[in-house]
Specification:
The protein is an alpha/beta fold. The chain has 2 domains: 178 residues, Rossmann fold; 143 residues, N-(1-d-carboxylethyl)-l-norvaline Dehydrogenase, domain 2. It has 15 helices and 10 strands. The N and C termini lie far apart (54 Å).
């Protein structure tokens, strides 16, 4: 039986495996750490990243990349952005030529400043574009694992491919919409993490709901500007991968990026705030990538730029907020 291969056994990869198993699909869940795979096999629980949820029999954890990929009809790519290219290079010899590639990670590659779909084309060849889909939207892994209603978008250059993934993943509580703008979906999924750090910092400073609402709104405008510069569509950012994911990540208590910003706003140093998280905060890597990508594309991202300066130039949070608020007045 053809199966799903999930590359990345963090919280989100595990939650997707649970969704697939509930649909009766076999999901092979790959982790690069042999000891992690052994723990998953023995305890049938991902205690490191998504504790409290038993792995069904249809979920097969493994550290063997060839075994995970052999015969897969769909490959879900769910590793942190910084390791995305190296994972693809390892997987390349074993990837079935006709397997659909579903990007479920969110970010912009450091140094190259590429979207993850662009990394796929470089590593696997230009033809891989025709079998690549981007899956994104407001989706905390824990809530998905609990079976709470969740909606996402699967976007591809091929409408037929997007609809195929839509049908393959959807259930009565995990609803997937089909989209045709993978670029806009990726930019929305990446930059919302940076804006969430800013939102958390404002909360940590004790600012109110007015501030948060304004920040989310202006943050969305920044995301749309960069998406347009990359060839995406502004309308995409009004949907699940833009506004939906942004609101969730800026307001939800389960948001690691918002939590990081909150601790920074309360006066914690970056290393201290990161240590308290225990998991990756993708917004830190993306803040650096987005800042330099915006410079390259000549796109104005004032909020993202100030987050970059707080994280990498040690600018005090209050000064960063003041810099955004003191910008010249202009039309909305």
């Amino acid at each position: 039986m053809a199966h799903f291969a999930i590359l990345g056994a963090g919280a989100w990869g595990t939650a997707l495996a649970l969704v697939l198993a509930e649909r009766g699909e076999l999901a092979r869940l790959w982790t690069w750490q042999e000891e992690h795979a052994a723990a998953l096999q023995q305890t049938r629980e991902n205690r490191a990243f998504l504790a409290g949820f038993q792995l069904p029999a249809l979920v097969e954890p493994s550290a063997d990349l060839e075994h995970t990929l052999r015969g897969a009809s769909d490959v879900l790519l769910v590793v942190p952005t910084a390791g995305f290219r190296s994972m693809l290079e390892q997987a390349r010899p074993f990837l079935p030529r006709d397997a659909t590639l579903v990007i479920a990670s969110k970010g912009i590659e450091p140094q190259s400043l590429m979207l993850l779909s662009e990394v796929i084309e470089v590593v696997l060849g230009a033809t891989a574009r025709e079998r690549t889909v981007v899956l994104s939207g407001p989706s905390f892994a824990k809530e998905v694992a609990l079976g709470l209603p969740t909606s996402l978008v699967a976007a591809a250059h091929s409408n037929e491919l997007a609809m195929r993934v839509q049908r393959r993943l959807s259930s009565d509580h995990f609803r997937v919409y089909a989209g045709d703008d993978p670029i806009g979906v990726q930019v929305g999924g990446a930059l919302k993490n940076v804006i969430a750090i800013a939102a958390g910092a404002c909360d940590g400073l004790g600012f109110g709901y007015n501030t948060r609402a304004a920040l989310i709104t202006r943050g969305l405008a920044e995301i749309a500007r960069l998406a347009l510069a990359k060839g995406g569509h502004a309308a995409t950012l009004a949907g699940l991968a833009g506004l939906g994911d942004l609101v969730l990540t800026c307001t939800g208590e389960l948001s690691r990026n918002r939590t990081l910003g909150y601790e920074l706003g309360r006066g914690a140093g970056l290393s201290e705030a990161l240590a308290g998280l225990g998991h990756v905060a993708e917004g830190v890597v993306t803040a650096d990538s987005a800042f330099h990508l915006a410079e390259r594309a000549a796109v104005d991202l004032p909020i993202c730029s100030e987050v970059y300066r707080v994280l990498f130039e040690h600018k005090p949070v209050r000064e960063a907020v003041r810099a955004v608020l003191s910008r010249p007045l202009k039309r909305e």
